[in-house]
From TrEMBL:
<feature type="transmembrane region" description="Helical">
    <location>
        <begin position="157"/>
        <end position="178"/>
    </location>
</feature>
<feature type="transmembrane region" description="Helical">
    <location>
        <begin position="89"/>
        <end position="109"/>
    </location>
</feature>
<protein>
    <submittedName>
        <fullName>Uncharacterized protein</fullName>
    </submittedName>
</protein>
<feature type="transmembrane region" description="Helical">
    <location>
        <begin position="63"/>
        <end position="82"/>
    </location>
</feature>
<keyword id="KW-0472">Membrane</keyword>
<keyword id="KW-0812">Transmembrane</keyword>
<feature type="transmembrane region" description="Helical">
    <location>
        <begin position="198"/>
        <end position="215"/>
    </location>
</feature>
<feature type="transmembrane region" description="Helical">
    <location>
        <begin position="222"/>
        <end position="250"/>
    </location>
</feature>
<feature type="transmembrane region" description="Helical">
    <location>
        <begin position="22"/>
        <end position="43"/>
    </location>
</feature>
<keyword id="KW-1133">Transmembrane helix</keyword>
<feature type="transmembrane region" description="Helical">
    <location>
        <begin position="115"/>
        <end position="136"/>
    </location>
</feature>
<feature type="transmembrane region" description="Helical">
    <location>
        <begin position="256"/>
        <end position="274"/>
    </location>
</feature>
Length: 283
């Protein structure tokens, strides 16, 4: 937790410190809902009618959400409440992960007893993310960067990840469009579309690219967005690695290649996150 030490209490952009901290209180209902959703799915048979392939992935995702993302969210909120800008960026990054995760759960998991929990989690996480960003002091965060090299490196990294995964996903989608078939991942999941393709190509990958460009151009908002996205990436990559192992345990076809690729991404993005946070002046 060395990179999350408390910093000065700065007010949010266009608001007071109390307004900036107010959104952190949404961490409380989000925590309760995550425990109910992820814990309930792991303990009870709620995935009724979903494909075994999708169920195995959900189990792996729930483990990472409960054991890694949730503690990071709670610790990040607690330290951000004390004034740490670094912790605030981590908190925002975990919220990106939760919004991403529960969009997929709300739309792709078949209706089950936890449906309203998924909807509530999506709502609380989305508004906490919007409110948290709206009250973040972007200029203050930029001013705390004493070293530009970590920021430039982070910008290049985010751009590279965006381009790489556009090639990967389009390489799966475009041949399927020309052949008149559906991508294998959709057939395996038993869903109408692949939610990962949608969220990545419509939201996450453009965000990575825009943030990377803005960071290299030293735009204030990018310094906060980069910290959040660099927190999101290792969480998502770790979840995919655990999903692959869960699929193998559940007797589903699982390739070592995705686990290796996303394992490398988890390590690289974690290292980049630590380096990026250390580039900020300690308050």
């Amino acid at each position: 937790m060395a990179v999350l030490e408390s910093g000065p209490r700065g007010g949010g952009r266009g608001g007071s410190a109390s307004h900036s901290r107010a959104w952190l209180w949404l961490t409380v209902p989000i925590t309760v809902l995550v425990v109910a959703a992820a814990g309930g799915e792991l303990l009870f048979d709620v995935f009724r009618g979903d494909s075994p392939y999708l169920i195995a992935q959900a189990v792996g995702q729930d483990l990472v959400t409960l054991l890694v993302a949730l503690p990071a969210l709670v610790v990040g909120a607690a330290l951000a409440y004390r004034g740490s800008d670094r912790a605030r960026l981590v908190w925002l990054g975990v919220l990106v992960y939760l919004v991403y995760t529960y969009v997929i759960y709300a739309f792709h998991i078949r209706f089950n007893p936890l449906f309203l929990v998924y909807v509530a989690l999506l709502g609380f996480s989305l508004y906490a993310l919007i409110g948290g960003l709206a009250t973040t002091d972007f200029e203050g965060i930029k001013a705390r960067y004493a070293r530009e090299r970590p920021a430039k490196a982070a910008g290049t990294f985010l751009l590279a990840v965006s381009v790489l995964f556009y090639f990967v996903w389009l390489g799966e989608v475009i041949p399927a469009l020309f052949s008149g078939n559906v991508p294998q991942s959709i057939a395996d999941n038993g869903t109408p579309t692949n939610g990962v393709h949608v969220l990545d190509m419509a939201w996450i990958l453009p965000s990575l690219a825009i943030t990377g460009v803005w960071l290299r151009r030293k735009r204030a908002v990018a310094y906060a967005l980069a910290g959040a996205l660099l927190t999101f990436l290792p969480l998502l990559a770790l979840a995919i690695v655990v999903m692959v192992f869960a699929m193998a345990l559940y007797g589903q076809a699982a390739s070592v290649a995705p686990a290796a690729i996303f394992g490398l991404l988890a390590v690289a993005s974690s290292w980049m996150l630590v380096r990026y946070m250390r580039g900020m002046k300690a308050g």
